[in-house]
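Continued from yesterday's entry.
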Amino acid sequence: MLPQTRLSWNRWGTLTAIGVIALAFYHGQSSVKGANTVLVPQELRIAVVDLNEVFRSWSRTQKLSATLNNKGQALKEWRASELSELKSLKSELLHLKPGSDAFKETVEKIRQREIEIDVSIEVRTKYLRTDQVRMTLDVYQQVLRCVEQVAREKGLALVLRKDNPPNERDTLSELQIDVQNHKVLFADKTMDITTHVLSKLESQSSR
């Protein structure tokens, strides 16, 4: 009986050793696989939004763009009018004797007027840029809030900005910048919630 018992232990010992080796090999393969494989949870829902389309199609951004364009055009017209008056003032020098008191007074008046116009243009341009930044930021924040609302309604965990693939550029450096900025390489059409975001934005704007 003793030899049989010893044989039984040897058999189980061999089987146990094989099991340990197999388990170690399995864990080793799992570690390697885990180190090289990105596991995405199945419950993670992702969508994309084309912000360029949102800014281009939303009625509020269209109105704001028109307002800013009108302000910019008004600034150009004011500048043209001021420069026209300055040109007329300079033309008066042609009818004055160089070195005379009237000539000197006109030259000084022109100089002062040039300074006033330059300062006024700088101030008006600064105000216009401030309006552009303020309005753009306000619109962007409203879009973000709307995207969050749509995402929560649809049970989305992540929303990315959809961008267009790089196009031909004049220089290699410009193309490289476009390639680096191109974040979303592929997104199925079913993941695009741009129309849903636009619809909610329009409904909120009409209230």
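--- second protein ---
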Amino acid sequence: MHGGKDDHAQPLTSAYYLTNLASEVLDDMMDGEQKTVWANWGVSRIVLVAVELLTLSQACLARTSTDATTLRELIERFAEAIMITSSGQRKSVRQVQTLDAYWDQAVDKSGAYFAFGMWSGAKLAGAALDRLEAATRFGAKLGVLSQIMDDIIDFVTETPGARSNSTEFDSSLPVVMALASKHVDVPALQQALSISASERTNEWHNQTRRMIVDLGGLANAMAMGKLYREDLMKVLDQAPSPFTVEIRSHIDAVTAISLTAEAIGPEGRNSP
């Protein structure tokens, strides 16, 4: 979106990718995700691999072709983004169950890291201060959209027992939206969510998802995703098209699940 040379961005892009991979490994471990390559590695190996990835990311970042002042700012902001992201992850683990708490953790967990990515690219391209601020805002909103769609994808596609001993499901946007609906059946949902993860059966999973859909949780989460998508696309419409193709493709990819969920209808959405 801001121009610049590809070879200048490669070390930064590599650092961003490696850190993102490390966060995915750790996030899956915390969520009890069972369908990953590293699901059976054990905590010690997962932590060591994550540390290695983060160390490599710093080595890549240090190779960024820029002046010393800009490089120092990149390193400092990169570290800050990782710390904020970690804080957001800790918030989600504590079972976020209000809309205010959800947006707070989404901005930290996903918004901060995406904001750094957009800001750093603009910084290397020599963008002016107003463009840097605009890039940061865009990145933060893109990160929140990614979090929203990730929650929707998990809700629509996840099978019972996919995450052992995890209550991450409880903090997803469809669940939080359902809890915020003020419907008379909200206490029943709260009661269902009070059951520990280890005691949740396939029947519990199916009944609880059906309840969330009936309370409008999934529909409202998808509506919120659409609003974020529309806002981002409006910004891209004002930018030179050659620089927005990849970002548009990314947004289209992460929001495609909404069309699928709408097409299969409520009954399909509740099937395991």
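The chain has one domain: 68-269. The first helix runs from residue 6 to 31. Will compare against the first tomorrow.
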